[in-house]
Amino acid sequence: MGILALMTNDRYELNKNLAQMLKGGVIMDVTTPEQAEIAQDAGACAVMALERIPADIRAAGGVSRMSDPKMIRGIQKAVSIPVMAKVRIGHFVEAQVLQALDIDYIDESEVLTPADDVYHIDKTQYSVPFVCGAKNLGEALRRIAEGASMIRTKGEPGTGDVVQAVRHMREMNRQIREVAGLREDELFEKAKQLEVPVDLLRSVHDNGRLPVVNFAAGGVATPADASLMMQLGAEGVFVGSGIFKSGDPAQRATAIVQATTNYQDWDLVARVSEGLGEAMVGINEGEIAVLMAERGK
Amino acid sequence: MTPLLGVLALQGAFAEHEAMFGKLGAATVEIRQSRDLDQQLDAIVLPGGESTVQGKLLRDLGMFDRLRELIANGLPVFGTCAGLLLLAKHVEDGDTHLAVMDMTVKRNAYGRQLGSFFTRAEVKGVGDVPMTFIRAPYIESVGEGAEVLARVDGHIVAAQQNAMLVTSFHPELNDDLSMHRYFLDTMVLRRRSGA
Known about the structure:
Chain A has helices spanning 3-6, 11-22, 33-42, 54-60, 69-78, 92-100, 137-145, 163-180, 187-194, 198-207, 223-231, 241-244, 249-261, 266-273; strands at 26-30, 46-49, 83-88, 105-109, 130-133, 150-152, 213-215, 237-239. Chain A is of the alpha/beta class. Chain A is globular and about 55 Å long. At the A-B interface, α2, α3 and α13 of A face α1, α2 and β7 of B.
């Protein structure tokens, strides 16, 4: 019997499993095959292929879309680790295109300009996995109900300011602790308040965690930022503009990878933080015109 | 006495392995740095994840030579997916890492995530086992010292050599404890009673 005949249809389980394999790792934004190789050599567990990193998207303004498939293919050829790419919120055809490209993970991302201001993509209709951003438990469980097999915070991308990722991670975990402490008969009302399916809420109640892997994303620029997010409960870290907007990308990327693995070792985080050169300049939360985290609730 | 297993916790699905061995009554400790190898370990577990990341961190964190020596000297080791790649002496189109087990491995042999799949198959000495393959490698061939334990679609997906057990699938992702039990019984406990 061939492998195809033996396959089950449970793609969703396999897609959650791939996120489990990424845990404890760093996923890096890259815009060229050369950057992808630098990221892989530095220890990235996956790369996010996109045309412009968030800091430049923010600076350029205008409408930001899915990347050119040719550029994505170039990056797929350059590295052996998983390759992810972003689609606009609600743009289900961009997602069809990425599945046709045999992408490893789709990020339905608020970093791009939303294509639909009401509906997210029905992610249950795809074989490839999706990661989505969430500021809180309600957003996370709505995305999971739509078929997301991985969640990340919606820290403000392209700013180098970690404050929002911290806020989202704390809020998520505070709400999870709260739900875990509820009585069974209180879950129905809680599901109503959070506007989420009660079966997903019950899973959180029973297991004390989201039913999928949860990474930190947005504003992570230093090894200490990565360790901070891991100590707050992230299961891994996305680093966007923080690496290739810094003085020495390879060295900074390596340092962030080590700080993510050994996030509880203060001496090691101190050591790898030495002499990394310029971090990305950064923009404070109060100075930015567009709050991308407010896209897609 | 309860055996103590060191689970390489640099990146990937190490927590899943810890949970599986915990259910079998074994104690586990996470190996993140060279000093973690100073403990009296009864075995090493190399989990699934990304082999390029794990291989790099083994070197960057100064654990590579220690770990290789421990395994070469007979410390039992169980490698799944990325762990299998770390142990292979030959990797097609890729770097080798610990290079202690006589086999040639093909990385991402089933393609990208769309090629990931689930199946069940017979593992010699273990029985019918659920197998989750995630961007998995397979073993192209094994050397004289190694024994094939399972094939799927003609490709080798489990093998052993002395006290080294490898699978290209992820037994840590299913509820079935039989691969973990097989490792404990035939490699870890037998070695302890023999010592």
